[in-house]
Design brief:
Elements (H helix, E strand, L loop, with lengths): L16 H9 L8 E7 L6 H20 L8 E7 L4 H13 L4 E3 L4 H14 L3 E2 L16 E2 L5 H14 L5 E6 L2 H15 L7 E5 L7 H10 L3 E5 L2 H13 L5 E4 L5 H8 L7 E4 L10 H12 L8 H23 L4 H9 L3 E4 L2 E4 L12 E5 L5 E2 L1
Parallel strand pairs: 1-2, 1-3, 3-4, 4-5, 6-7, 6-8, 8-9, 9-10
Antiparallel strand pairs: 10-13, 11-12, 13-14
């Protein structure tokens, strides 16, 4: 059920002396805040994703700032709402670059991130931890982009493997009609092709829409044994409800971008049995060190953040950024170039038990994927 790349040189970096206190022993840097720019869906049908990821990242940065920041420099996220629309994201990115933010962080989605790609590439501004697993952000290799999560290829490969291991080979795909949906469709198609299979049917929904009738009619008629959904939570929930109402009795699988807690909230009791692949450790399992520290950060912050996979991803991404920044600070002056070199120098290790591997030729930190299931009472079981 799990894929987790563990390297030779593995050790744990906690939010204690190593990751936070260590900043105090490094050489002091110039004054001023380190400002990160974020364009994200803060309103609209993907708003829970942007809002929760932002809150999770702020948990880490606020805790760090309370302990003196990086060389007495505090980290701030400046967020702008793009409603999960590429044109708005591009305009936000132009403004953030014009404001000379240190780096871009935590963008939400594939079509929006791709709209920002030529802008930050031309301006040579690092682009850190987009909430997307699309290959178009990974290949060709771009030295400015760092990924905290596994790819959609990693997720869809595990989904297809689990389905076929269960003997289910008639697989349909419901996908968002944009770069995100097509990235997920490519992943499913590739994984099926490796087994000499093809999707029995595919159907689409437009971004920021819940008009799924045509897609339901097409896919239900094809009688797939399972439907893989590559869409945001509102459309995925609408599809599940409408398909079941139309008599479909198969299973539903989603990739992580759907927003697991948001999907559970949308579906309620109708969510029972819906499966979601995850690229972050469970935020509900305190047996893991990274989760214990995440939950403790929430508690110290006054329990204002809901523990879920989206906020966990923001927290883990911030932890990774902090470690890259710590390495940059230890090497001397903190610049965009030293941030890139510092993050690459993280190498293969574990951040509080979460395995990461980075280098000058690999900016995809994690290949961690596991499956989870909604229980129908708002909970998520792994």
């Amino acid at each position: 059920m799990k894929q987790m790349a563990l390297g030779r040189r593995q050790f744990s970096i906690g939010l204690g002396a190593a990751a936070l206190g260590g900043f105090h022993t490094a050489r002091a840097q110039s004054e001023g805040r380190i400002v990160l720019g974020q364009s994200a869906a803060l309103t609209g049908l993907a708003a829970q994703l942007g809002g929760q990821l932002n809150l999770g990242a702020k948990l880490c940065f606020d805790q760090l700032n309370a302990q003196g920041g990086v060389g007495r420099r505090m980290i701030e996220i400046r967020s702008m709402d793009d409603g999960y629309e590429p044109d708005r994201c591009a305009e936000n990115t132009r403004k953030l670059i014009a404001d000379d933010v240190f780096a871009l962080f935590g963008y939400i989605g594939t079509p929006t991130s791709l709209a920002a790609l030529p802008l930050f590439t031309q301006a040579k501004v690092p682009f850190f931890a987009p909430f997307s697993g699309a290959e178009a952000l990974r290949q060709p290799f771009n030295r400015l982009i760092f990924h905290a999560r596994a790819s959609y290829y990693d997720e869809t490969a595990l989904i297809v493997r689990q389905l076929t291991n269960l003997g289910l080979k008639k697989i349909g795909v419901f996908y968002q009609n944009d770069a995100y949906g097509k990235a997920g469709l490519d992943g499913v198609t590739k994984a099926l092709a490796d087994l000499k299979l093809v999707p029995v049917a595919t159907a689409t929904v437009e971004r920021n829409s819940t008009d799924v009738k045509a897609a339901v009619d097409k896919l239900v008629a094809a009688k797939p044994e399972a439907v893989v959904q590559i869409s945001a939570y509102a459309a995925s929930a609408a599809f599940v409800r409408a398909a079941r109402k139309a008599g479909y009795g198969g299973t539903f699988y989603n990739v992580s971008f759907v927003g697991t807690q948001a999907l559970a909230d949308e579906l309620g009791k109708d969510g029972a049995g819906v499966v979601v692949s995850q690229v972050m450790p469970s935020p509900y399992q305190p047996s893991r060190q990274i989760t214990r520290e995440f939950l403790e950060a929430i508690k110290k912050g006054g329990d204002k953040v809901q523990p879920n996979y989206s906020s966990m991803e923001g927290y883990v991404a911030a932890r990774l950024f902090v470690e890259g920044l710590r390495q940059a600070h230890a090497s001397g002056k903190v610049t965009r170039e030293s941030l890139i070199a510092g993050t690459e120098s993280i190498g293969t290790q574990a951040i509080s038990g979460f395995a990461v591997a980075l280098s000058a030729t690999n900016h995809a930190a994690s290949k961690f994927v596991e499956m989870s299931m909604l229980t129908g009472d708002g909970r998520v079981r792994t």
